[in-house]
Design a protein that fits this description.
WH_DNA-bd_sf; Rossmann fold; Arc Repressor Mutant, subunit A; globular; DeoR_HTH; 2 domains; alpha/beta; 3-stranded antiparallel beta sheet; transcription regulation; 24% strand; Carb_Metab_HTH_regulators
Amino acid sequence: MAVAETVFARGNVSVEELAALTGVSTMTIYRDLAALEDSGMVQRHRGRVVALASSLHEADADFRLQQNTSAKKSIASAAAALVPHGSSLMMDDSTSGIWLLRAVADLGSMTVVTNSLLVANEIASARSAKLVVTGGEYQPWAHAMMGQYVTEQIASMHADFCFLSASGIAGLSCYHPYQAFAEVKRAMMRSAHTSVLLLDHTKMSRRALFKFADLTDFDHVVVDSGLDPDLVARLREAEVSLVVADPPG
Protein backbone atom coordinates (compact mmCIF):
# COMPACT_ATOMS: atom_id res chain seq x y z
CA MET A 1 0.00 0.00 0.00
CA ALA A 2 1.21 3.54 -0.75
CA VAL A 3 1.17 4.70 2.89
CA ALA A 4 3.30 1.79 4.09
CA GLU A 5 5.76 2.12 1.20
CA THR A 6 6.19 5.84 1.88
CA VAL A 7 6.79 5.37 5.61
CA PHE A 8 9.38 2.63 5.04
CA ALA A 9 11.14 4.58 2.31
CA ARG A 10 11.48 7.67 4.49
CA GLY A 11 11.82 6.10 7.93
CA ASN A 12 9.61 8.67 9.63
CA VAL A 13 7.07 11.14 8.27
CA SER A 14 4.16 13.26 9.46
CA VAL A 15 0.54 12.55 8.51
CA GLU A 16 0.46 15.82 6.56
CA GLU A 17 3.54 14.79 4.59
CA LEU A 18 1.99 11.39 3.92
CA ALA A 19 -1.13 13.04 2.50
CA ALA A 20 0.95 15.25 0.20
CA LEU A 21 3.23 12.44 -0.93
CA THR A 22 0.57 9.79 -1.55
CA GLY A 23 -2.28 11.98 -2.74
CA VAL A 24 -4.83 10.28 -0.48
CA SER A 25 -7.05 11.79 2.19
CA THR A 26 -5.98 12.05 5.82
CA MET A 27 -8.98 9.88 6.72
CA THR A 28 -7.59 7.09 4.53
CA ILE A 29 -4.12 7.59 5.98
CA TYR A 30 -5.36 7.30 9.58
CA ARG A 31 -7.29 4.13 8.67
CA ASP A 32 -4.20 2.61 7.02
CA LEU A 33 -1.98 3.66 9.92
CA ALA A 34 -4.28 1.96 12.40
CA ALA A 35 -3.92 -1.29 10.48
CA LEU A 36 -0.14 -0.88 10.23
CA GLU A 37 0.13 -0.17 13.96
CA ASP A 38 -1.96 -3.23 14.78
CA SER A 39 0.43 -5.35 12.70
CA GLY A 40 3.49 -3.87 14.44
CA MET A 41 4.89 -2.25 11.29
CA VAL A 42 4.73 1.42 12.35
CA GLN A 43 4.35 3.51 15.48
CA ARG A 44 3.30 7.10 16.05
CA HIS A 45 6.09 8.82 17.95
CA ARG A 46 6.32 12.53 18.84
CA GLY A 47 3.82 13.52 16.18
CA ARG A 48 5.41 11.47 13.42
CA VAL A 49 4.85 8.03 11.94
CA VAL A 50 7.91 5.82 12.40
CA ALA A 51 8.70 2.56 10.59
CA LEU A 52 9.49 -0.19 13.08
CA ALA A 53 12.07 -2.92 12.65
CA SER A 54 10.96 -6.18 11.08
CA SER A 55 12.52 -9.02 9.12
CA LEU A 56 12.26 -6.88 5.96
CA HIS A 57 12.67 -3.34 7.32
CA GLU A 58 14.79 -1.45 9.83
CA ALA A 59 13.49 1.38 11.98
CA ASP A 60 14.45 5.04 11.56
CA ALA A 61 17.83 5.86 13.12
CA ASP A 62 16.55 8.75 15.27
CA PHE A 63 13.88 6.45 16.70
CA ARG A 64 16.36 3.61 17.30
CA LEU A 65 18.71 5.93 19.15
CA GLN A 66 16.07 6.44 21.85
CA GLN A 67 15.22 2.73 22.24
CA ASN A 68 16.72 0.47 24.94
CA THR A 69 18.99 3.27 26.08
CA SER A 70 19.82 1.71 29.45
CA ALA A 71 21.04 -1.50 27.82
CA LYS A 72 22.96 0.40 25.14
CA LYS A 73 24.70 2.58 27.74
CA SER A 74 25.88 -0.45 29.69
CA ILE A 75 27.08 -2.13 26.49
CA ALA A 76 28.90 1.06 25.48
CA SER A 77 30.65 1.28 28.84
CA ALA A 78 31.92 -2.30 28.55
CA ALA A 79 32.96 -1.84 24.91
CA ALA A 80 34.78 1.42 25.60
CA ALA A 81 37.10 -0.46 27.97
CA LEU A 82 38.35 -2.48 24.99
CA VAL A 83 39.64 0.59 23.13
CA PRO A 84 43.15 1.85 23.94
CA HIS A 85 44.29 5.44 23.57
CA GLY A 86 44.93 6.55 20.00
CA SER A 87 42.95 3.80 18.26
CA SER A 88 41.34 4.02 14.84
CA LEU A 89 37.70 2.93 14.68
CA MET A 90 35.32 2.01 11.86
CA MET A 91 31.68 2.55 12.79
CA ASP A 92 28.56 1.85 10.74
CA ASP A 93 25.07 3.31 11.15
CA SER A 94 24.30 1.29 14.30
CA THR A 95 22.93 3.64 16.96
CA SER A 96 24.73 1.66 19.67
CA GLY A 97 27.86 3.29 18.28
CA ILE A 98 26.65 6.72 19.38
CA TRP A 99 26.53 5.52 22.98
CA LEU A 100 30.02 4.06 22.54
CA LEU A 101 31.39 7.44 21.47
CA ARG A 102 29.83 9.01 24.56
CA ALA A 103 31.47 6.36 26.76
CA VAL A 104 35.03 6.61 25.40
CA ALA A 105 37.06 8.69 27.84
CA ASP A 106 39.76 9.96 25.44
CA LEU A 107 37.82 10.26 22.20
CA GLY A 108 40.02 13.16 21.13
CA SER A 109 42.90 10.74 20.58
CA MET A 110 40.91 8.56 18.19
CA THR A 111 40.37 8.46 14.43
CA VAL A 112 36.86 7.44 13.35
CA VAL A 113 35.84 6.23 9.88
CA THR A 114 32.09 6.09 9.34
CA ASN A 115 29.31 6.07 6.78
CA SER A 116 26.88 7.43 9.40
CA LEU A 117 25.99 11.11 9.65
CA LEU A 118 24.73 10.51 13.21
CA VAL A 119 28.20 9.30 14.17
CA ALA A 120 29.83 12.15 12.24
CA ASN A 121 27.60 14.76 13.88
CA GLU A 122 28.25 13.29 17.32
CA ILE A 123 31.99 13.73 16.82
CA ALA A 124 31.67 17.14 15.18
CA SER A 125 29.46 18.49 17.97
CA ALA A 126 31.98 17.41 20.59
CA ARG A 127 34.87 18.79 18.48
CA SER A 128 36.74 15.58 19.18
CA ALA A 129 38.49 12.81 17.22
CA LYS A 130 39.77 12.87 13.68
CA LEU A 131 36.81 12.10 11.41
CA VAL A 132 36.68 10.38 8.00
CA VAL A 133 33.23 10.18 6.38
CA THR A 134 32.71 7.92 3.38
CA GLY A 135 30.83 8.98 0.29
CA GLY A 136 27.97 7.02 -1.21
CA GLU A 137 24.21 7.26 -1.70
CA TYR A 138 22.45 8.91 1.24
CA GLN A 139 19.69 6.90 2.92
CA PRO A 140 17.55 9.41 4.90
CA TRP A 141 15.92 6.91 7.30
CA ALA A 142 19.35 5.57 8.34
CA HIS A 143 21.15 8.94 8.21
CA ALA A 144 23.92 7.03 6.44
CA MET A 145 25.70 6.56 3.14
CA MET A 146 25.38 3.25 1.32
CA GLY A 147 26.44 1.56 -1.89
CA GLN A 148 29.49 0.34 -3.75
CA TYR A 149 31.42 3.58 -3.24
CA VAL A 150 31.20 3.08 0.54
CA THR A 151 32.50 -0.48 0.44
CA GLU A 152 35.29 0.43 -1.97
CA GLN A 153 36.48 3.24 0.30
CA ILE A 154 36.38 0.99 3.35
CA ALA A 155 38.35 -1.70 1.49
CA SER A 156 41.11 0.85 0.83
CA MET A 157 41.62 1.48 4.58
CA HIS A 158 42.61 -0.47 7.68
CA ALA A 159 41.48 0.31 11.23
CA ASP A 160 42.29 -1.05 14.66
CA PHE A 161 38.63 -1.73 15.46
CA CYS A 162 35.23 -1.90 13.85
CA PHE A 163 32.09 -1.57 15.96
CA LEU A 164 28.87 -2.93 14.46
CA SER A 165 25.44 -4.10 15.50
CA ALA A 166 22.91 -6.54 14.05
CA SER A 167 19.21 -6.18 13.38
CA GLY A 168 18.56 -9.78 14.32
CA ILE A 169 20.21 -13.04 15.37
CA ALA A 170 19.26 -16.54 14.24
CA GLY A 171 21.28 -19.35 15.76
CA LEU A 172 24.84 -18.09 15.67
CA SER A 173 24.34 -15.83 12.64
CA CYS A 174 23.88 -12.05 12.37
CA TYR A 175 21.39 -10.51 9.96
CA HIS A 176 20.21 -7.17 8.56
CA PRO A 177 17.07 -6.47 6.48
CA TYR A 178 18.99 -4.74 3.66
CA GLN A 179 21.75 -6.25 1.54
CA ALA A 180 23.63 -2.97 1.07
CA PHE A 181 23.91 -2.50 4.83
CA ALA A 182 25.06 -6.10 5.30
CA GLU A 183 27.78 -5.49 2.70
CA VAL A 184 29.05 -2.42 4.57
CA LYS A 185 29.27 -4.44 7.78
CA ARG A 186 31.21 -7.22 6.04
CA ALA A 187 33.56 -4.66 4.48
CA MET A 188 34.31 -3.08 7.85
CA MET A 189 35.01 -6.46 9.40
CA ARG A 190 37.49 -7.26 6.63
CA SER A 191 39.21 -3.88 7.05
CA ALA A 192 39.59 -3.93 10.85
CA HIS A 193 42.12 -5.75 13.00
CA THR A 194 39.57 -6.31 15.79
CA SER A 195 35.83 -6.59 15.21
CA VAL A 196 33.31 -5.94 17.97
CA LEU A 197 29.57 -6.59 17.88
CA LEU A 198 27.38 -4.42 20.12
CA LEU A 199 24.24 -6.43 20.78
CA ASP A 200 21.38 -5.57 23.12
CA HIS A 201 19.28 -8.53 24.21
CA THR A 202 16.18 -7.50 22.21
CA LYS A 203 17.98 -8.41 18.97
CA MET A 204 17.99 -12.08 19.95
CA SER A 205 14.24 -12.31 19.34
CA ARG A 206 14.29 -10.58 15.93
CA ARG A 207 14.84 -11.94 12.45
CA ALA A 208 16.14 -10.27 9.29
CA LEU A 209 16.92 -11.30 5.73
CA PHE A 210 20.62 -10.90 4.89
CA LYS A 211 23.37 -12.65 6.81
CA PHE A 212 26.59 -10.70 7.21
CA ALA A 213 28.55 -12.71 9.81
CA ASP A 214 28.52 -15.40 12.45
CA LEU A 215 28.86 -14.48 16.12
CA THR A 216 32.09 -16.48 16.19
CA ASP A 217 33.57 -14.19 13.51
CA PHE A 218 33.80 -11.35 16.04
CA ASP A 219 36.71 -10.88 18.41
CA HIS A 220 34.25 -9.60 21.01
CA VAL A 221 30.45 -9.74 21.28
CA VAL A 222 29.33 -7.25 23.93
CA VAL A 223 25.85 -7.84 25.35
CA ASP A 224 23.81 -6.33 28.16
CA SER A 225 22.83 -8.11 31.37
CA GLY A 226 19.28 -8.60 30.07
CA LEU A 227 20.42 -11.56 27.98
CA ASP A 228 19.03 -14.84 29.30
CA PRO A 229 21.72 -16.60 31.43
CA ASP A 230 21.03 -19.94 29.72
CA LEU A 231 21.63 -18.31 26.35
CA VAL A 232 24.84 -16.74 27.67
CA ALA A 233 26.03 -20.21 28.66
CA ARG A 234 25.11 -21.70 25.27
CA LEU A 235 26.90 -18.93 23.38
CA ARG A 236 30.05 -19.42 25.43
CA GLU A 237 29.86 -23.17 24.81
CA ALA A 238 29.73 -22.33 21.10
CA GLU A 239 33.00 -20.37 21.56
CA VAL A 240 31.45 -16.95 21.09
CA SER A 241 33.81 -14.43 22.72
CA LEU A 242 31.12 -12.89 24.92
CA VAL A 243 31.46 -9.82 27.14
CA VAL A 244 28.44 -9.33 29.43
CA ALA A 245 28.13 -5.71 30.54
CA ASP A 246 27.43 -4.84 34.14
CA PRO A 247 23.79 -4.08 34.97
CA PRO A 248 22.87 -0.38 34.74
CA GLY A 249 23.82 1.43 37.95
